[in-house]
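Running low. Invent one:
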Amino acid sequence: MQTINYRMLKSVLAIATQAGQAILEIYKASEEVEIELKSDDSPVTAADHAAHRVIVNALTAQYPSIPVFSEESGGIAFEDRKAWPEFWLVDPLDGTKEFINRTGEFTVNIALIQNGEPVLGVVSVPLKGQAFVGAQGMGAYKVQIGHPWLPIKTRDMAKERLVVVGSRRHGAQALDALLEKLGQHFESIESTNMGSSLKFCLIAEGKADIYPRLALTSEWDTAAAQAVLMAAGGVVLDVDFNPLRYNKGESVLNPFFYAFGDTNADWSELLVTETA
């Protein structure tokens, strides 16, 4: 399998940045975005396709021995990918609805999966010229393109205040119930909403404590940001407190999960009644 090093991390960041530039060309050209609907009724735009082409072409050229599995690949049967020891897992434009609604909270996500685990991740934020990157054994960084990389890490959970980050669009009722439960254990609870994989990154840079995802996601939605969070000292577990893993079967849907910053906290004690 591919050895992970800074050269690889930098090259993947460059690819994600290039894809982000392709997205911005479309984003800035017109406020009216032409939208198609996929078979699951989720939206897709020309920007999704443009970023997909940039990423797949570049990864294939630079790492020809590693398969690429992108949201916009049209689906690859598990029979064809079950023997992959490693592969790139890509969401060319995470937060398509944020792109359409012009919130700025859309990202480019590229992850390297080895034996079911995300070991390298790049989350690029095109509109801010910013990225979050991380890899196993190398730490995590917040990058302003063209500037030195700044190390980031998760924070310890404080009894006085818990910061919960959630989705703008999914699982609101379940999140409200969870906040009520957590409110019994903390002096104050602050809840913030954010689009795309930036929720993981907020935890990775020590600005939030937990991201409960009690609604459906796909593997390409989470892999890159999970790699960044893990490199920053965090963890992502399903509601049975098992590590979130990838390429498990025909379905690419994730189970419901929690992303945590403080791995020493007894989260199961705080959340167990919510998962029973």
Notes: The chain has two domains: 6-152, 161-270.
